Amino acid sequence: MPAPVTRRATLAFALASALALTATACGASADEETGPGGPAKPGAKGARIDLSPDQKRVRAEKVDAIARLVPERVRSRGTLEVVASAGSVPPLTFYATDDKTVIGVETDIAQLVADVLGLKVRPHAVDWANIFVGLDSGKYDVGFSNITVTEERKEKYDFATYRLDTIAFEARKNRGWRVRGPKDVAGRVIGVSSGTNQEKLLVDWSEQNVKAGRKATDIKYFQNTSDYYLALGSGRIDAYLGPHPVAAHHAASTGRSEVIGTFSGAGDRLQGKIAATTKKDNGLIEALHKALQHLVDDGSYRKVLAHWGLADEAVRTSELNPKGLPRTA
């Protein structure tokens, strides 16, 4: 998980990405479609994405049979204390244009779940590490923050899945290449963040290419999202490998880049899963799981993902504590 950025930096990232890609995409026509799943329509110059605090969210009705599964201490309080790591870039959890309201796909999913449970959402924006500190202490009921199920985390937390953990290569539009495996990045200049699953995959692929007699990948490291936006727009890198939600949303919002390949965040052998996360055995996970499955079945869940350009990450079934990313040595 990347380090959180300030609220104003989030808006600066969005502006930098738009300026960088618009200024450098001279060969692309203005009436082309945006990236996959984006809310823009053919003929638009990019997606019109609402970043205002007054979000027209998809809502759901209370389901009494599921609401009764909520522990009494939570029911009597009437609120669902939801924690997320805000200050990242769209579309996960980020600050709206008022610089204080947290919006994004995670916020919308949490609201839907609370609706089904008959609870009012009380959002809490913290840095990444404090998500787990707060869950451990009982300060927060659940985390909706792009949290991946891992075998190590399952020792302390319960999980109800709601989205695929997918990573993506993002490149400037109409460059005529796709990434389907290691050979497609041989000799390419690819950006990535250090210490991530994306870096591990890219390094592994480069080593495979060298062993096969192909050129190594020239890996460039970026700490800030705005830096990779600028590098991509200027052509200093051929593509960037990062979380699919960020890449898909960026492509949709600018209309000047596109996702050219997606892969499981858990590697070749396992499809990673993103999940609602609670302290282990706090009694809430069953209600969350049932609520999520209800939302999948009634279609409101897919409407939220489509709104944020993430239809490709939808799951058909919410799983309780599925197999997670294996421990690292």
Automatic annotation (TrEMBL):
Pfam (any one): SBP_bac_3
Gene3D superfamilies with a match to the protein in the record: Periplasmic binding protein-like II
UniProt signal peptide: 1-30
Superkingdom of the source species: Bacteria
CDD domains linked to this entry: PBP2_MidA_like
Organism of provenance: Streptomyces spectabilis
Lineage summary: Bacteria, Bacillati, Actinomycetota, Actinomycetes, Kitasatosporales
Chain segments carrying region Disordered: 29-48
Domain Solute-binding protein family 3/N-terminal, chain residue ranges per copy: 79-312
Keywords annotated in UniProt: Signal
Keyword hit for Signal: yes
Protein name as it appears in the record: ABC transporter substrate-binding protein
